[in-house]
Write a structure and sequence with these properties.
With 212 residues, the protein is α+β, with helices and mostly antiparallel strands. It has eight helices and five strands. A hairpin with a 3-residue loop joins β3 and β4.
Length: 212
Amino acid sequence: MAAKAKAKKASPRVKVAAKSKPKAAAKPPVKTEGEWPPTAISEAKVKEATGRGWMGWFVILNLMEATSIPHKDVAKRLKEQHGAPSWWAQMIAVEYERARGGRKKNERASGTYAVNVTKVMPVSLPKLFAAATSKRKDWFPPGAFAETSKTKDKYWRGTWKTGRKLEFGFYAKGDGKAQIALEIGKLPSPVEVEQERAAWKKAMEKLGALLG
């Protein structure tokens, strides 16, 4: 019996490998301002102009249930209830609709397209407005423009080329700076969007040189 017990003691122990627990699926990163959604206007620009980033505005629009409200009313609420400047209220509403899958990039509710170009100039708001509106032949790209309305140091509107709508907004930025923001609407396709964008970026550089 003793011999048997001895033999039993001597037998090597076989270690059973512990079953490894399956790795938990990686959690998606927490989205922060500036990471989502991809937009036509940068996070820095919208934050500088309105005091909020895209995610801040999108939270407001979600709480507003903006997808169930007409575009015009969404923009109006952003302006009247949340302090977004008129032009930016439109842009925020458009980008929200696009992010929710309701529109293609640069597409508007009518099915046509629009393009936006902005630039901050190192001059006062009155000086920027005066130069832009009185010297347009010195900086506009080729094309026929017919003025329809003008509000000093705020807005300048008109028709552009054939059936297109051109609108400028002017904003004080502090420290002797001002911003000009334009939108051309009623463009028939994304191709025209890029053509106008390139032309007006060059035009803005010309305006900057005039002010320099």
